[in-house]
Amino acid sequence: MASPAVIRCYAFTFALSVFLLITPSISIYCDEDDCYDLLGVSQNANTSEIKKSYYKLSLKYHPDKNPDPESKKLFVKVANAYEILKDDETRAQYDYAIEHPEEVFYNTARYYKAYYGHKTDPRAVLVGLLLILSGFQYVNQWTRYNQALEMVKKTPAYKNKLRALELERSGGVSNKKKNNKMDKKVHEDLSKELDLQINGAEKPSVWGLIGVRLVLLPYTLSKLLLWHGCWFWRYKVKKAPYSWEDASYLTKQSLGAPADAWRNTDDATKDDLVQRQLWVKSNMESYVSEMRRESKRRR
Ligand SMILES: *[C@@H]1O[C@H](CO)[C@@H](O)[C@H](O)[C@H]1NC(C)=O
């Protein structure tokens, strides 16, 4: 059921995620440097040797003792290298990364998992992802809406409607000779009003966004449950006659009419259709055959 726009949105988000994951791969672990070199130890040094060396170097480069910016940089680098090598797990991952420099993607993913894994709440990641997705969705909706609007504005029907509305407002008097500036303003106001009446191009709504829907899911589900429960109680248990609204809903469903089309049907037609009780199978069958006969007669 995914529309091309939704697929485009997903593809774009996926591409962005891959881009974000690959780009910083240049600066994982100790950047261009070797973490062991930075600490002045060999690759098979044990934990206490690494610790000792780190304390020595951090004293040497400490900003309090060395005001020169180069040593401040080194101080940060050494601290970072120590963060990686003091932990057996991240050290093993780092060793693996040096042994297998070709596995860029894997190493980067592992680095970020170790680096951010304990800091970032997975729920925050989910919320972030939902926000990004919803943002794309919203922008996409507005683009499509504006495109539809532009198209509608070019049709003669729209132009005629606008002119008619203008005449109606000015009381039938054509005010061509009046102030042009004011004319333009009135024109804009009227076209804004007409925009709202365009069918088929639904104005983008915040309520349809993935993120919002997910947050509202418990509410939506309970509302749906309540609705079904009420329906069952009223019409199946108490056998009450359908209210006009519910009968109208049933009619729309049995005709398979889209919500838009049904809303735009005039009341007389709706009334007639509702009276026929099309949700009863035999009524639907006779209605269909009647329609068939009618169309044959017309031809
Ligand atoms: C680490 O290595 C040093 C020097 O080789 C040695 O003196 C020390 O006992 C070792 N420490 C541990 C915990 O293995």
From TrEMBL:
<dbReference type="InterPro" id="IPR044632">
    <property type="entry name" value="DNAJC25-like"/>
</dbReference>
<keyword id="KW-0812">Transmembrane</keyword>
<dbReference type="Pfam" id="PF00226">
    <property type="entry name" value="DnaJ"/>
</dbReference>
<keyword id="KW-0325">Glycoprotein</keyword>
<protein>
    <submittedName>
        <fullName>Chaperone protein dnaJ 50</fullName>
    </submittedName>
</protein>
<dbReference type="InterPro" id="IPR018253">
    <property type="entry name" value="DnaJ_domain_CS"/>
</dbReference>
<feature type="domain" description="J">
    <location>
        <begin position="34"/>
        <end position="98"/>
    </location>
</feature>
<keyword id="KW-0256">Endoplasmic reticulum</keyword>
<dbReference type="GO" id="GO:0005789">
    <property type="term" value="C:endoplasmic reticulum membrane"/>
</dbReference>
<dbReference type="InterPro" id="IPR036869">
    <property type="entry name" value="J_dom_sf"/>
</dbReference>
<keyword id="KW-1133">Transmembrane helix</keyword>
<feature type="signal peptide">
    <location>
        <begin position="1"/>
        <end position="27"/>
    </location>
</feature>
<keyword id="KW-0143">Chaperone</keyword>
<comment type="function">
    <text>May play a role in protein folding in the endoplasmic reticulum.</text>
</comment>
<keyword id="KW-0732">Signal</keyword>
<dbReference type="InterPro" id="IPR001623">
    <property type="entry name" value="DnaJ_domain"/>
</dbReference>
<dbReference type="GO" id="GO:0006457">
    <property type="term" value="P:protein folding"/>
</dbReference>
<keyword id="KW-0472">Membrane</keyword>
